Amino acid sequence: MIGRLNHVAIAVSDIAKASELYRTKLGAQISAVEPQPEHGVNTVFITLPNTKIELLEPLGDKSPIQAFLDRNPDGGIHHICYEVDDILVARDKLKAEGARVLGDGNPKIGAHGKPVLFLHPKDFCGTLVELEQA
Ligand code: CO
After folding, report:
1. How far apart are the CA of 68 and the centre of ligand 1, in A?
2. Which of 15, 20, 68, 105 has the highest Cβ tally under 10 A?
3. C-beta atoms surrounding 22 within 10 Å
4. In which element (H, E) is residue 97 found?
5. CATH number of the domain enclosing 120
6. CA 97 distance to own-chain centroid
7. How does residue 112 score in pLDDT terms, banded at 50, 70 and 90?
8. What are phi and psi of 27, to 5 degrees?
9. CA-based angle 50:52:56, to the nearest 5?
10. Buried b (16+ CB within 10 A) or exposed e, 58-78
11. Is 130 among the catalytic positions?
């Protein structure tokens, strides 16, 4: 069912510092900081030949990544995103098999303008999984 790895998201407390690290130490191509107020994060996209890395920094008081950073002050891998051909078919299959979809269970428009869903980390090897419509 899952297709390509769309991105790996890394939560950081200082996105300017983190993107400079990727740019200068790793020679990565980085985007400008893009605020995503509807998701409570600032994002920087790092384009690699075969996938993307997203740096996430909390934006606003109720950022969904704040609790993660409280537990992991140095930052860390927050989620991985797999592409699926049809997000509603994928959701219904997973729910029928007992997987928990976060939020109200309906896809939201993600950082790339495509529908996304998140799956509970306890159901997927301790990893928060994002599904994105390919
Ligand atoms: Co993501």
Report:
1. 14
2. 15
3. 17
4. none
5. 3.10.180.10
6. 23
7. confident
8. 65, 30
9. 165
10. bbeeebbbbebbeeeeebeeb
11. yes
CA distances from 111 to 68, 82, 104, 125 (A): 19, 14, 18, 24
Q: Place 105 in a pLDDT band, splitting at 50, 70 and 90.
A: very high
Cα 20 to Cα 25: distance, rounded to the nearest angstrom: 8
- Two tokens, residue 50: 């075969």
* The total number of structural domains that make up the chain: 1
Please state, in angstroms and rounded to a whole number, the distance separating the CA atoms of residues 24 and 126: 32
Mean per-residue pLDDT, 76-93:
97
Phi, psi of 96 (to 5 degrees): -65, -30
**Reported pTM:** 0.92
Comparing CA positions, the residue from 29, 26, 18 lying closest to residue 77 is 18
CA of 96 to the centre of ligand 1 (A): 24
CA angle 30–36–37, rounded 5-degree value = 150
- State which residues form the domain around 99: 2-133
- Residue 43, both tokens: 């994002």
The conformation of residue 122, written as its DSSP 8-state character, comes to G
